[in-house]
Design a protein that fits this description.
Elements: E1 4-16, H1 25-32, E2 41-53, H2 65-75, E3 83-84, H3 99-114, E4 118-125, E5 131-134
Helix pairs in contact: 2-3
The chain binds nickel (II) ion.
Length: 137
């Protein structure tokens, strides 16, 4: 049977501050620039969630993408959208909310939520120009 990958795109927005408390204020400012601004800033994020599998013989779907959207919203984005990633999201506690660390947290939440289907890739766009992707390795 052929293996196919389907992808759902979702958007959310959130505030954050890139800051490492182990470093001095000067070092943080030098390392992170505007992203270290003390009173937060926001991004309009785009998340792409990919699931890989064989198409179901009855529906012809790898996964119903409307169902996938529901899983991602209920298990993850409802707790993140319009929130402050540093203050409001327990899964990010103690973690510097770079796109890299955000996508790792997203994987930890989504991989079990999507089972028994296979989450094969996440892609997180922080701006139009910058994105990070992760395939679970
Ligand atoms: Ni930022």
């Amino acid at each position: 049977m052929p293996l196919l990958t389907v992808t759902r795109r979702l958007t959310f927005n959130a505030a954050h501050r890139i800051h490492n408390p182990a470093l001095s204020d000067d070092e943080n400012a030098r390392l992170f620039g505007k992203c270290n601004s003390p009173n937060w800033h926001g991004h309009n994020y785009t998340l792409e969630v990919s699931v890989t599998g064989e198409p179901d013989p009855v529906s012809g779907y790898v996964i119903d993408l409307a169902h996938l959207k529901q899983i991602v919203e209920r298990s993850l984005l409802d707790h993140v959208d319009h929130h402050n990633l540093n203050l409001d999201v327990p899964e990010m506690a103690g973690t510097n909310p770079t796109a890299e660390n955000i996508i790792l947290m997203f994987w930890r939440v989504l991989e079990p939520a999507i089972r028994p289907r296979t989450l094969s890739r996440l892609k997180l766009w922080e701006t139009e120009n910058n994105h990070v992707e992760y395939d679970g390795r």
